[in-house]
Fold this sequence. Notes:
By secondary structure, the protein is an alpha/beta fold.
Amino acid sequence: MGAMSGEETPLFDRPGEATVxxxxxxxxxxxxxxxxxxxxxxxxxxxxxxxxNLATFVTTWMDDHADRLxxxxxxxxxxxxxxxxxxxxxxxxxxxxxxxxxxxPDVQAAVGTSTTGSSEACMLGxxxxxxLWRNARSAAGLPHDRPNLVMSSAVQVCWEKxxxxxxxxxxxxxxxxxxxxxxxxxxxxYVDENTIGVVAILGVTYTGMYEPxxxxxxxxxxxxxxxxxxxxxxxxxxxxxMIAPFLQPDLVWDFRLPRVHSVSTSGHKYGGVYxxxxxxxxxxxxxxxxxxxxxVSYLGGEMPTFALNFSRPGAQILLQYYLFLxxxxxxxxxxxxxxxxxxxxxxxxxxxxxxxxxxxxxSDIPVFAWQLRPGHTENWTLQDLSDRLxxxxxxxxxxxxxxxxxxxxxxxxxxxxxxxxxLAAELLDDIRSATAYLDALPSPMPAAExxxxxxx
Length: 456
């Protein structure tokens, strides 16, 4: 018989499959597309299952219509507003809808933008704070070389990056068992004339708890009456800004508070969109310094643009618009309520096991954390439980809390759209089984190197 052609050769005997591909040098020659595809496909099989990843806040499931729309818009570059004017207009539609959702006094006076995620959105909010503060200090003939930003010690790492990259002193208010979030307590000890703003987190990354923005604003009101310092708030609503309007509509945290200048959120978290897209809105254009805005021509007019990235995907903006149209307020409320019910079901079940104490129960955003009950065991830790659950495919992190609570380790579950009640029941059974297994150990688990922090 003659030699077999490349297409007829059994898959794992073809050139490229029979050798280990080098990772440290650019390949000299190529390979068949099927072979290259199979190599990449096989490698990512070693990743965890995204749907079972309860560590991430990021969306891991969308419906078939969204998948089809995504495939039709892979090639859209969001920055090309001249070339894609309708996508640019849809971006504006989205942030104006958010401005309305967050009770902006006048949507037409507000300004906003999309970003690659809530981290970039936070940095834009911080930059606006810094530039406004600097301009005011300069106009008054005062020094402006030592800006600081006040926030919780449990703040997401993007704020640490902002302070590092843009030369701002971070001032962290430590958490304690009595003050589990930034709540305005002792805030006067951290702010001064060089404070560009205060960050309030609507859904702390470590635990999912809301920081009480109204209480923080009231504390800053009292400070202003006493000292004259008028310090604005940026609400980092990466998760909560897409939860609170639907599940806690009476909670006052947004532009109903005049001290809130800007709000950011992550469209690819509880906004329901594949990564990555974020949003930031200012209650009024006055709070976004004009010298930070670039203006580009589109549709015979001009559109302001303010971002750290240049080229970035436009598809996610179209997906966000699709979801806003597809779900509306009532649909989002239903989606978020379903996630919250799953979170409450899981937190109740975990509390009933007896080995754990809840840090919170998921009644803010559908995220909750727990710790080992003091004195329960010396034989295992929450990291051991995390390892046991990983054997079943569940990715549930265990990590130390920040700063003054660094001796406390917690474990956290993020409930997203796609984690059904049925799947949650399977998870709860696995947690019960893993806990029973660990409780039956006759001696301590071997000590292993543990993570020193958590910045997810």
